Amino acid sequence: MVWLQAHACHGAFQGVRVEALEHGLADLAMRPLATAVGVSHGTLLHHFGSKENLVTEVIQRLRMRLADAADVTSSPNSTGNLAYWWQRSTTSQHLPVYRLLFEVYAQAVRQPERYGHYLQQVVHDSLRLMENLVEAGGCPPARAPLVASVIVAQARGLQLDLLATGDRERVDGSFALFLDMLTMLKHTWHQ
């Protein structure tokens, strides 16, 4: 019986994830969502407690999937991994995930009292990963937070640009140019 309940919740969660990716979160309401994924409204409330908890769990799992797909969960060893990360993380398969993440990011900026935890988590996680990456590449620890901020901002901006325009060639070329500029900056780290 417990396995059956866990399996049903997993199936419902997968349905919730698909619904969120296809339709976004702006008009998400628990009752229609429950109907769409084939469970009762009470089941969703029992499992998640609130819409905010549901959104948080969906986003956490999607972020983990992106990290796994881009292979950034392993220990970074240099900024040379950024080209690999960009190639792996911006495939057409992952763009709907970014679309949803940007939607939640914008909502969190608008309503930090509801989604402040998400903002803290996504900003901290991204910056910490990049700080580790640039320090491993030789960046002085005092400059690492600034360099990490530039990398994260550039990547987010270009991801959003790719979503808005679909201009893969220009956006990929812009990221490659950014990596060239980062390589030039790296030469100053050892002076």
From TrEMBL:
Keyword check for Cell membrane: no
Keywords: DNA-binding, Transcription, Transcription regulation
Any Pfam family: TetR_N
MF (Gene Ontology): DNA-binding transcription factor activity; transcription cis-regulatory region binding
The keyword Membrane is assigned to this record: no
Domain of life: Bacteria
InterPro entries: Homeodomain-like_sf, HTH-type_TetR-like_transc_reg, HTH_TetR, Tet_transcr_reg_TetR-rel_C_sf
DNA-binding region coordinates: 29-48
Membrane-spanning residues: none
Residue intervals of the HTH tetR-type domain: 6-66
Protein name as it appears in the record: HTH tetR-type domain-containing protein
